[in-house]
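Contributing: when you submit paired examples, paste them exactly as shown. First protein:
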Amino acid sequence: MRNPPKLSNDCFSLPPGVHWTPVDEALASLRERVSVVTGIEPVPTAAAGGRVLAVDVVAKRNSPPYANSAVDGYGFAFASLGQGEQALPLAIGRAAAGGPFDGAVPAGKALRILTGAMVPTGIDTILLEEDVVIEDGILKFEMGLKAGANVRPKGEDVAVGERVLSSGRILQPQDLALLAAVGVDTVRTYKRLRVGVLSTGDELRQIGEDIAPHQIYDANRPMLVDLIRRWGMEPVDLGHVRDDADVVKKMLTRGAREADVILTSGGASAGDEDHISAALQASGTLNLWRIAIKPGRPLALAMWDGVPVFGLPGNPVAAFVTALIFARPTMLELSGAGWAEPRGIHLPAAFSKIKKPGRREYLRAKMNADGRVEVFKSEGSGRISGLSWAEGLVELQNEGREIAEGDLVRYYPFSEFGL
């Protein structure tokens, strides 16, 4: 199957005259303009965890494939029972999972049957072994069960030909169990979205390298690479480039060859050494969104050789938050998984704050033992330790608000961002 068409060069454009873009408007614009960019390939079910289904899957086999026993006990024909105390002679043999009974159980007799065993002909009801007494080969019990008790009918869970999973689903371990149970050995999935990650800046060094007092270690690239991996995508580590316009352009060109989308960090503003935004500007596709969000600075969005580029802020806290809020849902859409919106919960605040109007704020936060939500001791976007401390984000809308302890705030655990 051919790969889907590339995105148009104006897919990130915004209406003219927009200066500070609200978060919801930015997300809606992205959602409208992006679509799947990866091809489709067959993948063995056993290796399909984390992959995105490209087509619906139907059952090749009933689940269960045959009527079977839900308990360890004794089976018989309900029609052979009378009133009051019952006494049925035991048939010779038994039925077990993987060891079916050979033949039919005569009317008026009972057979030992174990959990998961195929129900033999002549049995339609099964009684728990704890509810019977056996004396001299005779099964005795009090009447009280219903016809069909403890029998799982063939196809009770899933019938052959029934749709079990829909396209766009990110396959989970439990899905693989379902697919195996209904006999699906291969699924057609989208190819993993390849996401290039590039850091820029003369001040950056890599862990393990010698470092000067005026330099810092690159914290963004290992963070972004692992985010991409956890989202079921394939990271393409493009490394780090210095503040050199020609080198930046060459690396973007390489990234466009090797990846379906590129995430850069640093160099996305409008300063003298912001070569990412300068290169993207020269391509004629740059849209520098001044999004009303904290933490975060302008988010550079552009196309380079037909590949979408997200120019994330260089500050790790801002890069992390904007990757979760903007890059993740967009890349899920590009990957075939569809747009994903996190689901928040309202919890009482374990903090107080006067929030100014104008920007949506995301505070590093976690829920305490009392079910209240705490926030990190500092809102400074340079405090990387707050990312490790946090277990989620508190979202404060654009409006101004005075928050007192006990007031409800909206909390998003990191699990809602695929972490």
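Second protein:
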Amino acid sequence: MTSVGSETNPAASGPAALHRWLSWRSACVFGRAMRRPVLALGAAMAIFAALMLVKGVNPFAAYRDMFISTFTTTTSLGGIAVRATPLILAGLAVAVPARAGLINVGGEGQLIMGGVAAMGVSLALGGALHGPGALVLMAVAAAAAGALWSGLAALLRLKGGISEAVTTLLLNYIALDFMFFLIYERWKDPQGSGQPATRALDKADRLGLLGGSRVHLGLLIALVAVVVVHLVFQTTSWGFRLRVVGGNPEAARRAGLKVGSLLLTAMLVGGALGGLGGFAQLAGAEFKLRSGFVLGYGYVAYLASWLAGHKPIGVLLSCLLLSGIVIGGDSLQLDSGLPGASVNVLMALLLLGVFGFAKKREAAR
């Protein structure tokens, strides 16, 4: 017989009971965290299946072909990992400010500015430094540029009372225009094919590949960032204070917390992660700045963070899922005869599903 006291206090029954109780609690927390994305994905796929029926496409065959072409070949799996790398870092750029109750829609601009800063360092070095030393300088510059870009939105929020959701979104367009100015004018490769682009990075200044795959070392940077952010959220006083501010800023202020400083640092850290994503995309996949550099990545990363409830491990899984959907979009077009933009419809339905289940949960509280 188990006493009532041992049920409410598992430590009273010894280490074995405590371990079983903690395992059960962890499983429950993980189950609740995964319930929203699973339900949202199921709802989105069901609605998308109905749309395919309207177009005269067998949804079961379409999903089967999409799964086979996306998850059963090493080439597709490598493509998913490469595409997910900047998404993971940009997703964390959303998740960290969200911990403090901030809405960072500026992942796109932070990715771009990170890539611009990294390319600027490479051009400034002019071949004087190559290899790990150059890569470190490029990464540091990219993180600093991303932090500066998000810091502008934070200062406008703190000093002018302007919503960071608006300013981060508008800063995306400024970053894009700034990159266009550089690749069309100042940094355009005179030896190129005439298309607006910078010169390609030297091979010594590119991130190495993992084994014989196409996956580059930027994925390791993204995975380390996920683990670090998770540990910071779970084990540090800064992570706890961010959660307090995100839950009730006024109560946090009355408790003596420096709310303004916490909001600023959350945005700076988020922007730095976004800038690193731009560096990883430049040095690991693109190798040059061009008009399509990280096009749309920041907005997909925003969706990934919301899908994961702004939890770092969930961001990782969401980015892999969304990358798989994008890679699988080729199958929808080639095998099922659907328009190329069909994958965007599926992701939009997924976003609506996430928001719908979030609203339902808030209403139930």
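If you have annotations for the second protein, write them as plain sentences, like these:
The domain at 59-353 is CATH 1.10.3470 (ABC transporter involved in vitamin B12 uptake, BtuC).
Residues 1-8 have pLDDT under 50 and may be disordered.
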